[in-house]
Amino acid sequence: MTLCATAGTRWIAIIAVPLMLLTGFSATVVGVISPTGRLPSAPTTFHTYNSVVSELQNLSRDHPSLLTVTPIGSSWETTQGLANRSLFAVEVRLAGGTKQDVLFMGLHHADEWISMEVVMYLLRYVLLNAGNDSRVDAILARANLWFVPIVNPDGLEYARQYDTTWRKNRRDNGDGTFGVDLNRNYGYMWGSGGFGTSTNDSEYPGTVPFSEPESQAIRDLARAHPPVLSISYHSAGQWVLYPWSYTRLPTPDDDRLSNFAVEMAYANGYQVLQEGRATHVNPGNSDDWLYATLGTAPFTFEVGLDFNSQNARSIGAVDRNNVEPALRGAEMALGLRNWRFDMGRVTAVALVAVAAVGGLSSVYFVYRWRRVRRDNPIAVLH
Ligand SMILES: [Zn+2]
Predict the structure, then answer these.
(1) Residue 322 alpha carbon to ligand 1 centre in Å
(2) Which of the residues 94, 131, 189, 372 could staple to 140 if both were Cys, CB 3.0 to 4.6 A apart?
(3) Cα–Cα distance between 3 and 73 in angstroms, integer?
(4) Under 8 Å CB-to-CB from 362, ≥6 apart: which residues?
(5) What is the rounded distance in angstroms from the CA atom of residue 134 to the CA atom of residue 136?
(6) 3-state DSSP assignment of residue 248
(7) pLDDT, tens digit, for every residue of 4-54?
(8) CA–centroid distance, residue 39 to ligand 1 (Å)
(9) What is the third-level CATH fold of 49-333?
(10) CA of 109 to the centre of ligand 1 (A)
(11) Measuring CA to CA, which residue among 197, 210, 223 is closest to residue 169?
(12) Is 113 helix (H, G, I), strand (E, B) or coil?
């Protein structure tokens, strides 16, 4: 009986220890980390421009002391009298004290519907947990949070109604083509890559930097409230990207920015990459302009469970997976979290190491003890 039990224990140890190591390691490295606060319910269908506007009105009615909805500009079609679509910025602010600013943006690109959902969800997470969660409260004590869920309202409605692959805004280029890629229209190293120079190109950057009313609106908002951190949500691919985007060369702050990206990506399992090292360099995006002009720590998240930016069934999972990274980003930028290393991760790795050493030592000693007893039974009896 004793023998069987000992042999059994040994085999359990031999199987269980590597299994524990494996699961612990994978949960530590690629798992999705949930935030500490309560998670709001997620929508099961995508918002439209109108449903975002009415939801923002409802939220501002429900949280009058916390939330302000401000029009920050108009879409191109609106400037032409063809539509009536403002760009809205939502500010979440606790009264009192001098604060820094943090900016979250969605839907620069018309077909990337999930990017708007992540911004709306993050806003609702903050509102639900303000006053109830110490992390959200610590962030709000130091920063005003700005949310622009739809940078490209004309493009969104065109994509919804006519062409789900549409990417740009809806400027009439005057040559039978439409649209400027808003995320190539920002004014730092604009047009330097030589890509998308044709008006018909999906990455057409416009005639001059900030030619579009939508990118002007973001420029003016950011200049008025320079963000210490910005996250611009795009889709898809599960990437956390950081500048430079116009070149493969690193920024002078590469250490800081890449560490931010790693710490955020650690929470949702995304991969980290400098933007300029993607398939081709992308000059004129919001990250490069924000970093170069305002010193923002700017990130682009390519969100999505797969390469479909319009899969309504994935809204909930993508929304929930992207709360913790945003909180971490804000915490690091506001000095609430160390970006050089994460004590939580260090502790987890240390615990796994201790468990590994302990487990392997037990196996070894059980083995040794059994050897000694078998070879020398009398010695053991004494
Ligand atoms: Zn995009």
Answers:
(1) 16
(2) 94
(3) 79
(4) 13
(5) 6
(6) coil
(7) 334 444 554 555 545 544 444 444 445 689 999 999 999 999 999 999 999
(8) 26
(9) Aminopeptidase (3.40.630)
(10) 5
(11) 210
(12) helix
Q: What is the DSSP letter of 172?
A: B
* Distance from residue 357's CA to the centre of ligand 1 (Å): 46
Give distance in angstroms: CA of 234 to centre of ligand 1. 4
CA diameter of the chain: 100
Domain extent listing, the chain: 2-30+348-381, 49-333
CA of 135 to the centre of ligand 1 (A): 29
CA of 303 to the centre of ligand 1 (A): 10
| Confidence (pTM) | 0.83
382: pLDDT strictly greater than 70: no
> Measured between alpha carbons, how far is 269 from 102 in angstroms, rounded to an integer?
23
Q: Which two tokens stand for residue 54?
A: 């009415």
> What are the tens digits of pLDDT across the range 234-285?
999 999 999 999 999 999 999 999 999 999 999 999 999 999 998 778 899 9
**Distance from C-alpha of 296 to C-alpha of 257, rounded to nearest angstrom:** 10
